[in-house]
Amino acid sequence: MSLASALILEVSQIIRDPPRALIRLGIFVLFSILLILVTWKGSSSLSYGWSTAPISEAELKNISLKAKEFNESPVKAPFKNTFWEVGQRSRELRKWLERADHVGTSSFAGRQLHDVVETTAQELFPFLKNLQRRPGTKTPLADLRRSFTKGSKGIVIPVGGGEQSVRFAGHLIVCLRKVLGSRLPIEVVYAGENDLPEKGRNRISGLDGALDIEFVDILTVFDDATLKLKDGGWAIKAFAMLGSRFEEVILLDADAVFIQQPEKLFSQRAYKEKGTLLFHDRPLWQHAFRSRHD
Prior knowledge:
Blueprint: H1 20-42, H2 57-72, H3 83-103, H4 108-124, H5 140-146, E1 149-158, H6 163-179, E2 186-190, H7 198-205, E3 213-217, H8 236-242, E4 246-251, H9 269-274, H10 290-293
Parallel strand pairs: 1-2, 1-4, 2-3
Helix pairs in contact: 1-3, 1-8, 2-4, 3-4, 6-7
Protein name: Alpha-1,3-mannosyltransferase
Family: Belongs to the MNN1/MNT family.
GO molecular function: alpha-1,3-mannosyltransferase activity
């Protein structure tokens, strides 16, 4: 299976002020997702060099024992003290996933390995369980990976929380289409009807130049029981990207401002070499978050 890359563009501050607990959850999940996302939407330059040889009984046993260890000792709050462990498990899962891709499912051992990967992924990332696009599925990780359009590139904009967000998004979209001439498809992502009501969606879709735009309710993609995305906050950003159909993603805040086509970001040397391009936010709210600017 060929692997693509993920691009995250952070160019503005949060529009809403989520509870501190949600911020911590967002950081925790975003950190762990980004560690493994290079495999889910992947990068061919980032490989562990697994062979295509059939998996041996000993190798499968070792992986299964490690997965059992993870299952019997789940990562628990406070999450700020368990970043390292989440990272280690995500790294292991990524290696198993790549191995499973090379082995395939034609053999019994291969199918067992895929089962271990699915089970471990759901335990580490509970929001994958009960994937809303396919209720009752036993392979939500595989389903999610199949939802990506091969070779696709696009823009993802989380929008919601009020009138201001709708106005910002409208300005950004019109600027991208009418001023800069960008032709990248756009997904506007929101967390339920209360986050971005139909009236707001209609206002955005009715704008002059609002072409090739799709609205995605993230609550129809992932199980919100543990995420609490409907309660608001910037934690939606990571899941907006993960739930996108694009293999290569430019993730934008609604109040981003561009002075040239965003397509140029895909040709940046750092992105092409590393598979990810990150930006510091502009220094907003210095006095509200003084510690961030000291």
